[in-house]
Structures are given as C-alpha cells and as structure tokens.
Amino acid sequence: MSAFARVPGLEALMAAVNSVKTGAGAYVTNLYLDPAKAREWLARATGTNPKFAPAWSLLGDVERYEGNAEAADAAYSKAIAH
C-alpha cells in the first residue's frame, strides 16, 4: 500500500501535479527550437506563481541550453528554494 493511499485524495492530487509537470516539460522541450518563446512562457508561469518550482527548473534548462550559465544557476536556485 502506497503512503499516498492512506491520505484521502492525495494520490489523485499527485497524479494531477505529475501530469501538469509532464505537459509543461513536453511543451518547453518543443520550444527549445524557439528559446525566446520558451522564456516568455516560463516568465508568465513564474510571474503567475513565483513558487512554481517546475517552471523555474525548466527555465534553468532553457538558459543552460542557450549557454547562459549564470541565468541557469539563478533559475535553478529559485527552483530549489521553492
């Protein structure tokens, strides 16, 4: 029995969160062809919810992909903080 199964509704919530993370990851992966668009989308996501760690992490990935180590480190730090 999963630890999540002991808390009513938590397993469904975790499945929903993982679905959002997977969808966001796929969307941003496709946007690697257009990093400016990826940055714009992720800026909106982090602006709407500054504590949304997956968006900060994905932004770090985009910055790293583009060779912006300092910006990537800053984004990863925010992801870890949240």
Q: Give a quick account of the main beta sheet: strands, pairing sense, barrel closure.
A: none
Q: Helical element count?
A: 4
Q: Helical amount among residues, as a percent range?
A: over 70%
CATH architecture of the domain at 34-82: Alpha Horseshoe
Note the gap between the termini. Answer: 29 Å
Measured by DSSP, the beta-strand proportion falls in under 5%
| Number of DSSP E strands | 0
**CATH fold field value of the domain at 34-82:** Serine Threonine Protein Phosphatase 5, Tetratricopeptide repeat
Structural class determined from secondary elements: mainly alpha
Furnish the topology, listing elements before pairings:
Blueprint: H1 10-31, H2 35-48, H3 53-65, H4 69-81
Explain what you see.
This protein is mainly alpha-helical and 82 residues long. It has a domain of 49 residues: Tetratricopeptide repeat domain (Serine Threonine Protein Phosphatase 5, Tetratricopeptide repeat, Alpha Horseshoe). It is globular. The two termini are 29 Å apart.
